[in-house]
Amino acid sequence: MTEAAEAKKDGRHERRKDTAGVKWDCERMRGGGMPMCGRYYLNGETVREIGELLALWNRRAGGKDCSNTGGETSGWEKERGLWKKRGREILKAAAETGRKAQMEAGEEFCPGRTAPVLVWNGEEFAVEEKRWGFSGREKNRLLFNARAETAMKKPSFRGCMEARRCLALASCFYEWNLAGERFTFTGPAGESLLLAGCYQAGEERDEFAILTVGADQTMLPVHERMPLIIEKSRAWEWLKDGRKTAGFLEGPFPEIEKKTEYEQLSFSFLQ
């Protein structure tokens, strides 16, 4: 029996391995089911939006007034071009890993790949490149999901949850049902998403994992788990203020929409 046939027989899917052949160690549905949150997509519009958020957050962190964002004479309006600089930071980081061309055209990420994430580095909110998936005990096995309900208690994630939280940028993410059918999920009206995670830092372990929670009514027909999504208006608190972490894990959580297709956009506005 081929590997594909074996995967179909026991409820797995060929996507359980990335392009480098790394095995995925992930949450499973009770009784054996599909891996959780194993692929998401990032396009140019999302990079532009996140660039604006980074500029706003860093002004707030510096004690500057960010409440006036609409007037043409406001300080924020004069500095609005900062989104382009922040967006280029993502592309610069991608260029260093040889992925600039792919990201400019829109890119999908799966465990084992290096992806841009938002972090608070102690001085500012920034974009950093990290591999998706913690190194497991077994060689070439990755822990790329962590249950939000238990992450603060497990040794593998506790330290990261307390001091090193991050956000993965996603224009959408995908889930497969037991029949192998793929569904695309976005925020309301196709809005982008910020997926909560935690990360390890170091020369040999610069990697992150995405947190998951119980599925809402939109996700439940496809899977019983879903990524922990953070509201953009409060995302800076998730990154910077560890005292509020428990509240984010308890919900309520932002709504999502289920779609069947997505549009790949280019990064032409950054060229």
Specify the CATH class: Alpha Beta
Which architecture per CATH?
Answer: Alpha-Beta Complex
**Widest sheet: strand order?**
3-2-10-11-15
Main sheet overview: 5 strands, antiparallel
Can you walk through the features of this model?
The chain is an alpha+beta fold. It has a single domain (15-43, 100-270), classed as SOS response associated peptidase-like (hypothetical protein yedk fold), CATH 3.90.1680.10. The protein is built from eight helices and 15 strands. The chain has helices at residues 3-9, 44-61, 75-78, 82-96, 100-104, 155-163, 235-240, 245-250, and strands spanning 23-25, 40-42, 107-109, 114-120, 125-132, 134-135, 141-143, 145-147, 165-170, 172-176, 182-186, 193-200, 207-214, 225-227, 257-259. The protein has a five-stranded antiparallel beta sheet. The model is unreliable at 1-34, 64-84 and 261-271 (pLDDT under 50).
Q: What layout of secondary structure does this protein have?
A:
Blueprint: H1 3-9, E1 23-25, E2 40-42, H2 44-61, H3 75-78, H4 82-96, H5 100-104, E3 107-109, E4 114-120, E5 125-132, E6 134-135, E7 141-143, E8 145-147, H6 155-163, E9 165-170, E10 172-176, E11 182-186, E12 193-200, E13 207-214, E14 225-227, H7 235-240, H8 245-250, E15 257-259
Parallel strand pairs: 1-7, 5-13, 8-13
Antiparallel strand pairs: 2-3, 2-10, 4-5, 4-9, 6-7, 9-12, 10-11, 11-15, 12-13, 13-14
